[in-house]
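Page 47, continued from p. 46.
Same chain as before, 168 aa.
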Amino acid sequence: MIKVGDTLPAATLMEYVEVEGNGCSLGPNPVDVAQASAGKTIALFAVPGAFTPTCSARHVPGFVDKAEQFKAAGVDEVWCLSVNDAFVMGAWAREQKTAGKVRMLADGNAAFAKAAGLTLDLNGKGLGLRSNRYSMLVRDGKVVSLNVEGPGKFEVSDAETLLAQATA
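Result:
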């Protein structure tokens, strides 16, 4: 499993873009993790699935609500990762009103989750291989803090915990 001090795994995530601009076309666009995190401080959190109860009711809203506080703490971007496709993440972004606050990034093949050693096997529940629930603070592509949840838990990966780490 990835740990504090490690570099983020090399992976390409996908982001659904609603408005064409800045070299991005409408629809899914690739996001190279190394390039996108270089020289930035990222508050990254991952969830088992878009539109799932805890993720939609508590996890994403916490980061949306605290987006300005993260910026004030020196965080350049907030990322949400999930093992879903970019179209689902785009729809979830609209529903959660994340525009300008949280980048909703699809790890469709679980490549990032696998490389980070943070997968969650939900085959028994019909959901397949997913990402574990966690949050991490990343500076210039390196993990500064990491908060991994136990199975079925939502205790340490919330926005409040990561914000306290960003301001420490």
